[in-house]
Design a protein that fits this description.
It contains eight helices and no strands. By secondary structure, it is an all-alpha fold. The chain has one domain. Helix 1 packs across helix 2, helix 1 runs parallel beside helix 6 and helix 4 packs antiparallel against helix 6. The longest helix is centred in the C-terminal third of the chain and has 35 residues. The protein is globular, with a radius of gyration of 17 Å. The mean pLDDT is about 90.
Length: about 190
């Protein structure tokens, strides 16, 4: 595998783990264990039964938390301290064995992409959480699970396509979150002035 391909895989993994760290670890580990993907040796630990069990339990808790308005935003806020650091760690592990420069670049870019993705998701999730009906939280959670499941496969089979899609989704999510927040601020201003 070339250093650039390993870097693309590392960045795809960093992006995915910023959407859901626990689902990313669970799906990647299961995919490797079932032979659907081949993780690099440095990430083979993700298919360990203990890692899969803990990731599965935390993923289930995350899904339940994200279905409850208010709790979803609190969960995302707490993960501001977790996901960007995990993005760095997974990006570094994905490139382990490449040249030290590639490993450091993967950590730097993975952390930056992870932070940008998580903060965009936090802003979008907070806007969804402000919606008075429960369907939007369930729809957002379902979309996240499906996206992370797709990326668990795509990162290892089509890393450049996966990275391009991830960057496009990040830009789209940022623009949608910005538009929703503008609408919410406008509605709040109209209600305050009425």
């Amino acid at each position: 595998m070339t250093a650039l391909t390993a870097l693309a895989q590392a960045l795809g993994l960093a992006w995915s783990s910023s959407i859901s760290l626990y689902l990313t670890v669970l799906f990647a580990g299961l995919g490797d264990r079932l032979g659907w993907i081949a993780l690099p040796e440095s990430l083979a630990v993700l298919s360990n039964p203990w890692v899969l069990g803990v990731a599965g339990l935390l993923a289930a808790l995350e899904i339940l938390a994200q279905l409850v308005p208010g709790v979803a935003t609190a969960w995302e806020t707490v993960h501001t301290a977790i996901r960007p650091l995990a993005s760095i760690a997974l990006a570094v592990l994905a490139t382990w064995g490449q040249s030290p420069a590639v490993v450091v670049v993967a950590g730097l870019l993975g952390g930056s992409l992870g932070a940008a993705t998580h903060l965009t998701k936090l802003k979008l999730r907070t806007a969804v959480d402000a919606s008075p009906e429960p369907v939007s939280n369930a729809a957002a959670t379902g979309a996240e699970v499906g996206t992370v499941a797709f990326f668990a496969w795509a990162i290892w089979n089509h890393p450049w396509v996966a990275l391009a899609i991830a960057l496009a989704l990040l830009l789209a999510a940022f623009l949608v979150a910005r538009a929703i927040w503008r609408l919410l601020r406008g509605a709040a201003a109209r209600l305050g002035g009425a």
